[in-house]
Amino acid sequence: YEVNSKSLSLMTVAQTASDYDPYKTLGVGRGASQAEIKRAYKNLAREWHPDKNKDPKAEDTFIKISKSYEILSNEERRSNFDRYGQMDESQPFGQSQHHHGFRSFHNSFYFDESFFHFPRSRDFADSKYLLHHAHFNSDVLPDSHKRPYLIKVTSEWCFACIHIEPVWKETVKELEPLGVGIGIVDLGFERRLANQLGAHRAPSIIGLVNGRVTFFHQAVVREHLRQFVEDLLPHKLVERITDDNYLSYLDNWHVENKPSVLLFDQVPIVPLLYKLTAFAFRDYVRFGQVDQGDKHCTRLLRQFNINTYAPTMLLFKEDTEKPVDIIQARGLKKQIMDEFVSNNKFLQVPRLVNQRLFDELCPVKQFHRRRKYCVLLITGEDQAFLPGNKAFVDFASANRKEVLRFAYVYQRQQQPLCQALRHNQAVVILERRSQAGKVLYRSVSGGWNGSEEDKYRLHEQLELLQKDPTYLSSDATLPELNNEMAPIFIIQWMNAAYEYILQIYDDLLYSNWREMMPILSLIFSALFILFGTVIIQAFSEPGENKPRQPKPKEQPQTEDDASSRASNASRPPKKDFVEVTELTDITYTSNLVKLRPGHINVVLVLTNASKNALLRKYAKEVFSFSGTQTLHFSFLNADKHCYWMPSLLRSVSDAAESEGQSDDEEEPSDYAGHVLALNGHKKYFCLFRPVFTGDDPNDSSSETSEDGARPKRGSSRATSIEVHHKLDRLGLWMERLMEGTLPRLQVPAWPSLDETANRDS
């Protein structure tokens, strides 16, 4: 009875799906035009919208109306429905009419998911591979620098995803044990992550390595997916080794600062497992492969007595004639290879070439772990240091202990480290105490040249250190090590440009226009601007035939000009200092006489005795105004040009007398501390006179001097000014200068700096 009821339910669903007719739902005939279909849809949608129609069936009816319009408004879908009774263009057509009844049931039940809303349960095995945005950026993206990832983008009701599912499962079963990362992104639930990956449709297969995303564009076959993963890996991970190059390969350890691994195998092609291991440990170990079937490798096989019946891995360090570790097995597993390499990823005495290597070799002391000491040899690169370096390696090989780490640095490459330890050639025993660089250390007395006496002395001090941890009596803070292996900037730029070009080529080749639109828009915009400029210049008249416009007369400064200059004064300085130039015979003409219109030169008058004090105070007062492009700052030495200031003020007095104004005040004998704002083009200046800012802030002399008025010579306060007080009110005067409220003193002509000319005048 239960089986019959289920069959009856399925038949009812099939009958309902086959009876569904979008023409009847919209109330139009099969020959209706698109305008008639659209008009019918609008009327029915307005009538049956759930917000307006309170009928219980309104929502279902509205969904049917929307679905019917979606089918009939698309000519391809409408044609498919008319010919096959199907409602989605993504499904295969052209099946025999003999199976039409079954096809109608199959299509209606499986493919009209938006109408019938049948849930599809996800495979439980896929749940462990699901990626989320936060998990991807925190774990998967950094891990892609150690192993490649194969990611499938899928979604609910993606029936093409169902077709590739068997191949995907076989590929995962093969590649995951080799160390390839597997991930699945649900396009419906992880839209943010899909956008980050650039995946906008399902199914899609993506490769991720070193943070770079690559799309798979071939037929979904297991062999293609395997080759796709191999192509993701960098080239030359594994070097081909023969009798001709194995000596140079093994001897290159001191340049690369890495151990060397040799894989002996019968196959000429490097296994994918070996490539993945080489990619994971490429920063620590060099990898080479020897083809046992190659006739050019017979001497290698005899020298190391290799068994040709099983793959063999040899690991070499400083000694190129004897490997430090060997494994041999018919079926090398990833776990065995990883353990084999990770236990030997450092040389016996590695060179500290960057901070990351220093952190791994000499970790910071932690209270819950046993102490670890770093025995560091500071040496050189010349041939004279080679015997001592080799003796240090021999000593380290004979005194290997869990608590000791031996390393060396080149003094020329790591000068900041050597300066912090205050040694240029010595053996230093140190213990790191914090990530900030704090260490406790002690240098071995007598230096190091590799003699037996040096070895005995070092061994004795290491024994004392094991008995008494307080033996390290000196402390220091070490700087971060220089990265000796970092590629130069031009190589980094070329690599980045190469990857960028490859990405553009891949997008163009496979028409990934959604990702290419910003780049294409930028290119076409640049071309449009370029050709537009060329066309305008081609059709425009030559500049020589155009009459030159007369230069308009400069208008006097208005309130708007003053306000704009005041607003410019609020600009932050572009530099952390003020450029102050000296007015000399050479710079006088360009900085004053021929100064550009609208520009002002603020000049400080000083003497040899007051030069340093006044310049410091002057720079402090005008620093906030140094961001203004129309202001220039200079100083004039009154001891060198003692007649310039009297000549300037005398020319102002002569001009005032000719206009009927009188000025009976005497000129001061000391002009140090005076500041002039000189407008060379309009021939006027504003004058700041030194003031006293002592106990009485209401002193009249200090109030009037900011305007350029002269205090009387008989004033006791005006004549008793200390040097560091002379420019106390210069900041306020500069603000009024920028506002344009200071009085201007006109001059008929700027006096010359030449003393003879000034004296004769």
TrEMBL record:
It is found in: Endoplasmic reticulum membrane. Keywords: Autophagy, Glycoprotein, Membrane, Transmembrane, Transmembrane helix. GO terms for cellular component: endoplasmic reticulum membrane. Gene3D superfamilies: DnaJ domain (1.10.287.110), Glutaredoxin (3.40.30.10). Its main location: endoplasmic reticulum. The chain crosses the membrane at residues 519-539. Residues 543-556 have a biased composition (Basic and acidic residues). GO terms for biological process: autophagy. PROSITE patterns: DNAJ_1, DNAJ_2. SMART domains: DnaJ. Residues 542-574, 696-720 are annotated as: Disordered. Residues 21-85 form the J domain. It is a single-pass type IV membrane protein. InterPro entries: DnaJ_C16_autophagy_reg, DnaJ_domain, DnaJ_domain_CS, DNAJC16_TRX, J_dom_sf, Thioredoxin-like_sf, Thioredoxin_domain. Plays an important role in regulating the size of autophagosomes during the formation process. This is DnaJ homolog subfamily C member 16.
